[in-house]
Amino acid sequence: MKKALIIVDVQNDFCEGGALAVPGANEIIPYINLLMQDNEYDQIVLTQDWHPANHKSFASNNGKKVGDNIILNGIPQFMWPDHCVQGTFGAEFHPDLNRDKVTHIIQKGTNTDFDSYSGFQDNNHFMKTGLDDFLKYHDIQLLEIVGLALDYCVKFTCLDAAQLGYVTCLHFNGTRGVNVKPDSAKNAIYEMLQNTVTILG
Ligand SMILES: [Zn+2]
What is the mean pLDDT of the chain? Predict the structure, then answer.
């Protein structure tokens, strides 16, 4: 069975000192580097949150406060601080992440009007990113998933992966939750378990 490692959004803005820092984010980077060193993955894919500066997921672009909720294209949208703006330092991958064996990069959130938590598609399920096509083209059947943040982009990437028919495993030590809402990371784990995602300790 061919397998791929999917590394979700390990970018400066989600790490220590970043605009949308996930607590403990930097701790997962050595773990991910070891996974790449100790395993033979057929493909290693990075996802990269890659927003235009006027992106609608930013509170600043809607006259809202960070943490507010709006309805965007008919679905709830949490208001984030400006983050991962195309071409900025915050959008770059963390320099400690070893990228020697990376075979592909998927950028998401590039359309001003749509947020994209999943690495596979935007939150409205309007546009696909090309990740599924890439993996199917390379005959990948098993996905191991790590990255940031557990309760948003990692969760939705895992749920879509399982839905699309991949054997889907989340490395618990390779992810951290942002927990902007109480128990959000814990609930994300329950939701993934209910949807055939395997959690590897
Ligand atoms: Zn984003």
Answer: 97
Asked whether the beta carbons of 38 and 115 are under 8 A apart, the reply is no
| Phi and psi torsions of 69, nearest 5° | -120, 140
Q: What is the pLDDT of residue 91?
A: 98
Catalytic residue among 153, 155, 158, 160: 153
In angstroms, what is the span from residue 40 Cα to ligand 1's centroid? 30
Active site residue 108: yes
- Name the E strands within 93-177: 104-108, 140-148, 167-176
Q: Say yes or no to pLDDT of 76 above 90.
A: yes
- Given a cut of 90, whether residue 201 has pLDDT beyond it is no
Domains of the chain and any CATH numbers:
2-51+89-200 (3.40.50.850)
Cα–Cα nearest to 50, from 22, 13, 21: 13
* The model's pTM: 0.98
At residue 110, the pLDDT reads: 97
Distance of CA 115 from the midpoint of ligand 1 (Å): 7
Phi-psi region of 88 (alpha: psi -120 to 50; beta: other; left: phi over 0): beta
**Bond prior to 161 in cis (omega within 30° of 0):** no
